[in-house]
Amino acid sequence: MRQSFDKDAQKAFSLFILKEMGYDFSAGRLDESVHPFAIGLSPGDVRITTRYLPDDVTSALFGTIHEGGHALYEQNIDPELAGTPLCTGTSMGIHESQSRFWENVIGRSRPFWERYYGELQRRFPGQLDVPVEDFYRAINVVRPSLIRIEADELTYNLHIIIRYEMEKQIFNEGLKAADLPEAWNAKYREYLGVAPDNDAEGVLQDVHWSGGSFGYFPSYSLGNMYAAQIADTMERELNGMWELVGRGELLPIKEWLTERIYRHGKLLEPSEIIERVTGKPLDPDYLVQYLRRKYSDIYRLG
């Protein structure tokens, strides 16, 4: 997993997967940025970016899939809502449910790589000479890490808790900007047992605070919960969902989500969306069950 991977080949594979997901290139494009993001100017212009690392073949890909999930939401809102305040996602929690769903539930699944691993190997001849099962387990390895967007699914929410607790300290307890690095490093040592060597891999790694997006980070954890609950319903309603993924037939998944989530834009509240789709209010137990099932299998916990 750690060797030099050609950037152009990484980009070509990212573009290929976006097409497989149903991303409309006549209404958007993929570019490069230091921090991946998606921006929707209208359903006819939804652009995304990713970040290429020379020694990591999956970082840019999962960034692309994540932002592609956001883009599918924005591209598939009912055209009748265009030009109104309703022509956007209903909340950032629901928005992040789509990015996290596509990135993790689909993109880090075994059936996904049983279909696409051969495609990846062909783009990097002689570099990924291991069985697909080894690759699948490698991209789902669990370890404490410094960078939120590179974190595995199990430790990811600890990164969110740290940021949420610090935001409360800023607004409720007067934590000063000058004291943020020290507070950040202390929480990483406490929660994850690691500490950054510099602020670039510490408190400055995210663009949210510098952009004024305080209160945004919990949307990612909400998104993880929504995604697991939505996936549970999809597995029961969409006949042979994982067989479709294993064949690379991702469009029925996009269509299922479009009908139940994307097309409504901001017409429905998040609580209405999750209850309409799953028949229940948001319940974190679905995420717990998803993680326990997946990682018990990967780590052969029995």
From TrEMBL:
It comes from the Bacteria. Pfam families: Peptidase_M32. This is Carboxypeptidase.
